[in-house]
Structures are given as C-alpha cells and as structure tokens.
Amino acid sequence: MLAMTLKEFRQVVRDHRTLAMLIVMPVVLLLVFGYAASFDVDVIPTAVVGPGATNVPEQLPELFDVETADADATRANAEEMLRAGEVNLAVVTGDGPPVVLLDGSELFMARAAVQILAAAPIPGLDYVVLFNPELDTSAVLVPGLAGLIIVFVGTLVTSMSVVRERETGTLEQLAVMPFRPRDVFMGKIAPYFLIASIDIVIVLTIGTLLFDVPLNGSVLPLIVGALAFLFVALGVGVLISSVSENQAQAIQLALMTALPQIMLSGIIFPLSSMAPAVRWIGYLLPLTYFNQVAKGVMLRGAGLGDLLMPLALLVALGAVIFTLAVTRFRSQLRPARVRAAT
Amino acid sequence: MRVVAVTALSKRFGEVRAVDDLTFEVGQGEIVGLLGANGAGKTTTMRMVLGLLAPTSGRALIEGEPVGRVDRRRLGYVPQGLGLYRELTVAENLRFSAEAFGTAPPDLAAEGLSEYANRKVGELPRGVTRRVAFVAARLHDPGVLILDEPTSGVGPLGRARLWESIHLVAETGTAVLVSTHHMEEAEECDRVVLMAQGRRVATGNVSEVISGLRTVAVVAGVTTARLDEIRRLGGTVLLSNDGWRVVGLPLSVVSEVVGSGTEVPATFEEAFVALSA
Amino acid sequence: MSWGLSRVTVRFGDATALAGVSIDVEPGEVAIVVGADGAGKTTLCRTLVGLEGIDGGEIRRPDRTGFQPETSGVWNDLTVMENLEFVAGAYGLATDPARRRIETLLEVTGLGGARDRLGRQLSGGMRQKLGVAMAVLSDPELLVLDEPTTGLDPVSRLELWSFISLTAGEGKAILVTTTYTDEARRGNSVLALDGGRSLASGSVAEVIDAMPGALFESARSHGPSSWRRGRTWRIWSPEAEPVPGATEVSPDLADVVTVAALAAEARR
C-alpha cells in the first residue's frame, strides 16, 4: 500500500494542471462567490410620477434611489417603466394619497421596500405589489432555474461532441473533406438545438403548471430570447469541446462554466447586491439575460420593445461565440491554410 | 508534374524534432512507402502532407498547390484509427463520405460489402472495417491516396490482399503514399523513403537502397565477449538463421576479432540498420 | 512441468475470443504466438496470467507470473527508477536484494544512463525494455509478454530479443506474442492464431513440414489460392498438383500461416 501511495504522490505532483485546480480553484471560487453572495439590497431604483414629483422624493427613505421624477408622467407610465425593468419601484402622486408600486419580480427589493414601509410608515402611503402579488419565491426562481438547467445540460452534452470525434479519429477525416469550419459548427449544434428547444418548452410548461408561475406576457419575446440563449449555451459547449483533449477535460470545463452561472447570473443573488468587481462577470453570462427576459415576459408581461437590451445582448453573445468557435475550428481543421495566410 | 512534392519539410514539437528536413516526391500511379519504426515521423509527415498539421519549416505541395489551398476532393485518407463512425452502419458511413465529397455512394455489392451494409461499424471485425475505410477514401476518385499503416496488425493473408487493392488503385493513376513498419513491405512499393528519428536515411527502390551494402556473416559459436567487442567497435550484431551477421564494420575488422567471416550481400533490413546508424 | 493452456475456450457475450486453444510453455524456453490483431493473442495472454475467466479447458499457471501488456506497462510520469522501485514495492521485495536486481536489470537492458528519465521521454525500444524489466523484476517462473516488439526499429527489436533469450537462459518459461511471422524462428515453439482458433502449432520446422499441398511462385496469379508477395505471386496447390508456368518453392512460416488462413476461410 505504501508503494501505491508513493507512486500516486509522484504522479499528482507532476500533473501540474490538476495541482493548479486543487490549490488555486478553491481560493478563486471563495473570493468570487464570497463577494457575490449577498441578499442585501442597497438601492432600489425608483421613479416618482405625478404632481408631487418635485417634493415627494426627499420624503422617501434613502433606500429608494430616485432616478426619475416626472411630474407629467401618469400611473400608466410608471407601470410601463416597471414592466420594462427601468426602475423597480414607483411612487404615483396625485389627488389622493400617494401609491407605491412595487416590482414583485424583484423579490428582495420588494421585500426590503415592504419592510421599510412597515417599519416607518409614511402617513397615507399605500403600496401595491405588481407582477407577483404574493411575493412568491417560486415565481421568481423558476424561470431562471429553467434556464440554468438548459444551459447546464446543453453545454455538457455539446461539450463532448467534438472531443468524441477527436478520440475516434473521425475529426481528421472531416478535415480532409470539403467541409467549411462553419459547416462543422452548425452541423454539430443543429440536432441539440432542436432537442433542447423542445426541452425548454417542457421545462417552462411544467414550471408554470406545478409552481404556479404566471405567463403574463406574449410568448414571442420569450421564444426569441430562448432561441438566442440556446445558441449561446450550445455554442459554448462546442467551443469547450474544441479546446479539450479528452472527454474528462470537456466535462470538467463544462461544469466550470455552470457553477458561475448559478451564483453570478442573478437568479439567486440579485446582481445589484454584488460587489462591482464581481458583478461584471454576471454581465458576461448568457443566463443573466435569459433570466431577465424570462422574468420580464412571464411575471411582468413585458413586450419585445421592453426587452430589447437583454435580447440584443444575447444575440451579440451568440455572434461572439460563433466567431470564436469557427476560428478555433479553422485552426484545427486547416492549420496549414491558417499558416499560409499569415 | 509530381503529384505530391515535399521539400525540406520539418516539424518541431518544443525540443523534439519529429520530422527533420524531409524531401521526397510521389508521381502519378506511383506507390511510395514511408518505412520506419514507431516514432520515426511517418504519421507526422502524412498529417503535414494532408494539411492537418502546419510544418515548422519546408513545404508540401499537392499537384503544385500548397496543401492548405488544395481542393479536398483530390485527397483520400485512411488514418491509423480508420476514421469511421462506430455507431453508424457501413452504408451510412459510406453515404456520409459520398455526400461530403459530392459523388454517388459506392456500389456495396461490387466492393463485396453488401452483407455488412446495415451493420454498425463498431460491431464488425477489423478486417472488414479496414476495407470499408479503404472504400470511403477512394470513392471520390482522388488524385492522391494516403494510407497510414494500413497493414499494422494484419496477418500475412490480409496484408497480401490489401497490397493487391493498393496496386489496383495505383494502376488507375492515383498517387499512393503508404506508411509501414514492416521491412518486407518495401518490395511492394515502387520506391521507399526510409525514415529514422524524423530524417530520411535513404530513398529509392529496394535494390537501390541495398546496392553495394555488404554484411559480414559469421557462423554460430562466437562468445558473448567477442560480440561485445564488435559492438564496442561500432558494429551492429543481428541474428540470422544460422549464426550472426555484423553490419557496419568491414570484413577485415570483424575477422580480426572473431577469427572468421564471409562477406555477403545485405538484406533490406540490414541495409536499413546500416543507413540509420 | 510445463505451463500453459489445454483446450481453453474464452467467450465474451456472443463472441468467442479463444476456441479450444492449447499451448505449452516450458521452463527455459520461449513459446511464440503469432497472429493478426483480433486473433486472440491478448486474450490468450490475459487468460494465462489469470486476468480473464475461462469457459472451458484448463490453465496451468505458477504462483509467480510476470506480465507485460500491449501498452508496455510503463507509467509515463514516473522515471525509469521510480517505475522499477514501484514494482519492487508492490511485490514487497526486500530493499537490498531488490536494489541489486534493479541494478542488474538496468545494466542488461542498457537503461542505466536513463534511470532518471520519465517514462514518456523514453524511445519506443527503451520503453518496451523497461516494461519487460518490470515484469521480470519479481523473479516470476512464467513471463508473458504481449507484443513487445510491435512497431520497434530493427535494432531495438534485436536488443529486446537478446534480453528475452537471456531471461529464458535463467530458467524462466516465456511466452511472447507478435504480429511478425519472421520472429517465430526466435522461439522454441510457435502457435499461429486466427480468429481465436489454432491454425498451426509445434516447432517452426514441424509447422512448415505439416503444411498440406505444395507452394509455387509465379509472375501472375492463378486462382483463388494466390496472393501477392512482393513482385511475384504465391500459389498454393492443396493437392500438390503442379501449377502451369510456376515454379515450386519451399514455404517459410509466413507462407504456412497464409495457407492455413486460406484453408480456414474455405472451410467457413
């Protein structure tokens, strides 16, 4: 047994990659997630509308960070802003007592607001929770969860697609056939795309039925978002596949891309609560934007126009992944040509 | 025009020179064999000729064009692992290749493969899958056929049959580049390129390679001490049916140490040893 | 007392890897198993050392066997010395005798100068020699080597065979498998395997003598029992009838194995 232990020790010490993972990874992960994990709400972007727009803001608790004060805007305008996610709280002033509109799809902000208002009630101020009146956790979690599951499974499955070809030697054959690198990329994604699309529908349907998640908006923006999101998730998988030497490595990398998405995409810990140094990682993750789109459509009934930004970003991410993967393929399938070009 | 022209081709992986200043050509209808042990650089060379690996220096041209720009349809390749999809059937594999190259799928009956058409490649014996890979590589009538150790692990009958097929393909005008580590297969090639440690140590047909090289045959009954002495002097000692043969030392030197010996023409294997020393 | 297999059959599900195969390996002698990939050489080796169960027949195996698998058996990220020390430790060999034995083996194989080199940095020939040394280190009575010479250059092959002969000279029984028919003459006995079945067995001379019919050489093929050999064709005549335009030649082992394979094919 001693001989065995000694041998293993020697092998591990020589395996620099695994050693780096064992020592460096836990430290990095702790730092990143430590700064990310926070339910504390520091600011709630707020809008004040109606005739009281000028003097109401100073009366509001500090937590309500007034970004817009528009005397000419109406309650309908305020609801629009909330639906589009521009602000998460609106104070509607008018003839009667002011009404506070809360965005129920931002659970922690809504709860923080309710707490503050209950603790130090402003006389005559009433509040209404829009979009998730019960402040139900599942309603807020399920859309994001669905996305997480899809990204996890989708990336994992496609991450092995190219590696398998390399291991069986068929990648070389593809390289000597008249295929263009983008043919190979799209061909590899296509079947998974179809299956995963059906998957998303199933997962979201079950989610809405079992967990009482509403579907308040039109399905179109959701579909657009889901398709763009899928393209990115599967594309990342293929990209991982093209840089992995074997299936074990591919799975490792796929898992490593899944972990940050749980913690940093805003599905559990709100992005606004994260330290800025860590928050930017969240802005690079496709799940962050799918979460915004899914919650926006399902809970807030947001339309295409409201969700233009996250949708555009998803499409942009897709384009970046596509370019990276195709470039990577080109250097693998036609290295001699790449050389000649330089 | 030479179909395949390799000039001063080199490939370095860090400190290791996998291929070192290699030059050779393959003409239309010619069978050229890359001969050498594992690690001599045969597979690396082939991958550079196919454009799968970029050389560190030197160049490879196919039909006068740099390999990166060659129309893939001019190439046919059977790698060591055969390059077939194990979960797909023979028919599906061949159809995929045919479609990729834009030709009609081959006639399975004519190739003697109809009984295996709907069997998965992963379930068939090596001999059959080798033939399938061979068909897949030439169904688009390539100008160049590159075969990486097609006879590795094949018994004598299988090897003979494979070489028959290779000769038939060459007769249609295809240039064939084959690699092997069986010395006796040098006879099957029009020309051989002997490789050792990435370098070309000889080229030509079998008689040209052997030409003039002599070995000293020594009858059995020589002590180990004497053999060690021969080795110290720089000779290589090989076993033969009836004694020892010494490569690399002249008769006079050998006789002095051992007391006897006759000069005989070298075998191909002995020539290889002498040239790669 | 010879080691080996007696009419052993090994099945994996529906496939029969070995069918009624017998082989004897005498102490102090080298038995050679020749066959193509998939013929059953590796299964035979693994069965003989006890890594595979059998579905019929008997195995005669000593307590101490040494085995070198097809993949050389060397650990790539350990040095030559560490590889040998590991084997010594695994077998619980006493330190001093083990160290002496390791030194002797390093000298005999010529690996002394490479003792601190990592397994993956060794040339093919050196790696194979190390693998054999590791199999022999524990002083087994039966040594089984699976394709130690495949893919090696002629000089390394010769050095490996010298090492094997030396080890046989120490009284060990050795079984070596190979795909090169010309290596069969290095052994005391040969077994030709094809598809799990024995095509021929005995000493090389016996096997060649036992070939049925006669062998001819011609510039052209003649019927289904012809095959290319270099620039000419070999033609087998099962009934020893002369073939027009061909000259009779004496067969070597490769010819005999080919004939046996042809005959087996005809029977199927």
Topology:
The complex is a heterotrimer of chains A (342), B (277) and C (268).
Chain A: H1 2-14, H2 16-36, E1 44-49, E2 64-70, H3 75-83, E3 89-92, E4 99-103, H4 107-119, E5 126-130, H5 137-159, H6 161-168, H7 170-175, H8 181-211, H9 219-243, H10 247-264, H11 276-284, H12 286-300, H13 308-333, H14 335-341
Parallel strand pairs in A: 1-2, 1-3, 4-5
Antiparallel strand pairs in A: 3-4
Chain B: E1 4-13, E2 16-26, E3 31-35, H1 42-49, E4 57-62, E5 65-66, E6 75-78, H2 90-101, H3 108-111, H4 126-138, E7 144-148, H5 156-171, E8 175-180, E9 191-196, E10 199-204, H6 206-210, E11 214-219, H7 224-232, E12 236-240, E13 243-247, H8 251-258, E14 262-265, H9 268-276
Parallel strand pairs in B: 3-8, 3-9, 6-7, 7-8
Antiparallel strand pairs in B: 1-2, 1-4, 4-5, 9-10, 11-13, 11-14, 12-13
Chain C: E1 3-12, E2 15-25, E3 30-35, H1 41-49, E4 56-60, E5 65-68, H2 80-90, H3 95-109, H4 124-136, E6 142-145, H5 154-169, E7 173-178, E8 189-194, E9 197-202, H6 204-209, E10 214-218, E11 226-229, E12 232-237, E13 247-248, H7 253-267
Parallel strand pairs in C: 3-7, 3-8, 5-6, 6-7
Antiparallel strand pairs in C: 1-2, 1-4, 8-9, 10-12, 10-13, 11-12
Helix pairs in contact in C: 2-3, 2-4, 3-4, 4-5
Compact summary:
The complex is a heterotrimer of chains A (342), B (277) and C (268). Chain A is an alpha/beta fold.
Describe this structure in words.
The complex is a heterotrimer of chains A (342), B (277) and C (268). Helices cover 65% and strands 8% of the residues of chain A. By secondary structure, chain A is α/β, with parallel strands linked by helices. Chain A has a five-stranded mixed β-sheet, with helices on both faces. Chain B has helices at residues 42-49, 90-101, 108-111, 126-138, 156-171, 206-210, 224-232, 251-258, 268-276, and strands spanning 4-13, 16-26, 31-35, 57-62, 65-66, 75-78, 144-148, 175-180, 191-196, 199-204, 214-219, 236-240, 243-247, 262-265. Chain B starts with a strand and ends with a helix. Chain C is an alpha/beta fold and 268 residues long. Chain C contains seven helices and 13 strands. In chain C, a hairpin with a 2-residue loop joins strand 8 and strand 9 (197-202). In chain C, helix 2 (80-90) crosses helix 3 (95-109) and helix 2 packs parallel to helix 4 (124-136). The B-C interface holds B 36-40, 125-127, 152-158, 160-161, 163-164, 167, 181-184, 187-188, 196, 236-239, 241, 269, 272-273, 276 and C 35-39, 123-125, 150-156, 158, 161, 179-182, 185-186, 194, 227-231, 234, 254-255, 257-258, 261-262, 265.
